[in-house]
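To close the chapter, one final illustration. This time we ask the reader to focus less on the individual chains and more on the assembly as a whole: which components sit near each other, and how the overall shape emerges from the parts.
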Amino acid sequence: MTTTDPATTNDAPVTRPTATRRPRRRPRGSAITGLAAWAVGFTFVLPVLWMALTSLHTEADAGAGRPQVFASLTFANYSDFFSGGGADPWPPIINSATAAILSTLLVLVLAVPAAYALSVKPIEKWTDVMFFFLSTKMLPMVAGLLPVYLIAQKTGLLDNITFLILIYTAMNLPIAVWMMRSFLAEIPPALFEAAEIDGAGLVTILRKIVVPLSAPGMAATALICFIFSWNELLFAKSLTGTVAGTAPVFLTSFVTSQGLFLAQVSAAAIVVSLPVLIAGFAAQDKLVQGLSLGAVK
Amino acid sequence: MRMRSQRALIGLASIAVIATTAACGGAGGGGSSKGTVRVLMVNNPQMVDLQKLTAANFTKDTGIKVKFTVLPENDLRDKASQEFTNQSNQYDVATLSNFEIPFYSNNGWLASMQGYSDKDTSFDQADVFPSMSKSLTGKDGKIYGEPFYGESSFLMYRKDVFKKAGISMPEKPTWDQVAAAAAKVDGAEPGMKGICLRGQPGWGEVMAPLTTVVNTFGGTWFEKDWTPKVDAPEFKAATNFYVNLVRKHGEAGAPQSGFTECLNALTQGKVAMWYDATSAAGSLEASGSPVAGKIGYAQAPVKDTKSAGWLYAWSWAIEKKSKNTDNAWKFVSWASSKKYEELVGKELGWSRVPAGKRASLYANPAYQKAAGAFAQPTLTAIENANPVDPGVQPRPTVGVQFVDIPEFTDLGTRVSQYISSAIAGKGSVDDALKRGQGLAETVADKYR
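The assembled structure is written out below.
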């Protein structure tokens, strides 16, 4: 079909729609697929909505066993979270932000040049390098936990946020390199050639071509790295103590084997999820561009 | 070109590293500073109260800051074992129990508190229940832990339901009487079952009450010379009794039920009886509880022994590696003191006092008034619990509802999984215990 001469096809007028007709011509799914999509979407959001609702209930209503949709609402769990409870929530939130933001920046600074060397000007055996990056993700994280713990203990870096930043950077770097490589591969090589002819060095190329053109891709990569670091629990729980504890570790502290905690932990979980949600919404436009960039390929 | 690009890359990378380390140089730091005590503790309500009261009282009086890490029970156990095994010195003090403290001290992971408690007369070690002090003592005879709150187990039942059904509950019931009562009150009210017993897998879940039943039925995990007795007739009879009782007259969803589920079931009128920790009474009698004033308390049911209740105490232990033991003791002795019990009584209410460790509390009129319904039964249960000789035969270790060896967490949990399945109707008790015997043989080989 691709070789068919456009002039001989019967639906020639349809392929050149007028501006006013265009919206109606866009392919739309049927009502049933629409409904199905909404149903699936709703199923995914339901637990979060349930959590939000539970966070506004009293502990007694939250723990009642059967759903209490119409129970009275209260913000007490939120005010308890910020002021009432025994522990100050800000240090863990600040620790999480420090670890997530700095490790994400570090990942980008390292991943963009690495991706450049793997796609724009591929080094020798670049596929082996890519595979090596990926292979580091094949070891189950828990298998690396004890060695990492012992390294941290011997170097005196236990309970130190710097160590978490390094760990998160190392954990996210392979994914970031893979993502950035596919984004950089989208940039037409002619642009780089033109820039080089005009005398641009590597730094100029990175700054004037790579960064602006792959901004949506970088946003998508950054967001994913940020989410992974913000939500990481396994290493944070083992490697931190009273000083560098992160928000997910703080969240687990609401769970108790004696007494009710559902409403309180729901409120805490909502608060701790907010930064990720905000980051997601802020990057939404770039993100859709970025993710579809990869998808079209 | 290649040279230039390489240099640029190295430059970029090093800038990033320098920026990062500079930015967070101040945030980290694992070393202990003077005047700070770092505490790792379990997230039980009594500890949360402690956390709230520390700054305005302990820190205000002594100038010592306290930093807490609070974790759910299972996470705490993982973290504590990691911390103490490696002597990581991330914490000075941790909440451990009379399960861990004896063998942690034998392994040289804990700092002895004997010297401190001898000198510190205001702490009044003699006021702490002897059964508790004994279970927190190492092989060398020194004290390695101070209890924060202690508990035994007893039977809680709905007095109103029993009265209506025309049954009286003796102060020291037998398991046969309890089983007969469970059959009678099953269905006494719509949706009400006879009894709540833990069914959730875990050495500290279903295995805790079940082991007390095994003890009083004449069974044991190990004999004095470490001969495993898991598939012996007494162990089998006790397990069959427990599983049949909970299957016939037990709570809905028994294989997933633990302390919290049973507490909810009794509070919401879904069961008429509950055999569990004495510390549950505080929640049942708290203001706002729909069953406050309706609960009767009887001693742990027995068969072949005089008493059957367990003994458990969340206790403070100081890490051997800590360079901060003076301050750590100041914190421990404050948290486990009479003064702290009074502080909680006055500020938060007497039902929230971390009880079950000091005789003086039970002589306190204010506490007697607030905890009248359960103070005496709790005291009797704790005083009668016998961690040294809990069954009919001599034991290799100290402990009622557990065998005090590190391997028991794994052994108990694996056997409990089979038993929990039997409660769910998948698999038989005989099979479960046969497998358990095999696992116990492997453990025994290490000690024989």
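Confidence is low (pLDDT under 50) at residues 1-33 of chain B. Chain B has two domains: 36-144+312-375, 153-310+392-447. With these observations in hand, you are ready for the problems at the end of the chapter.
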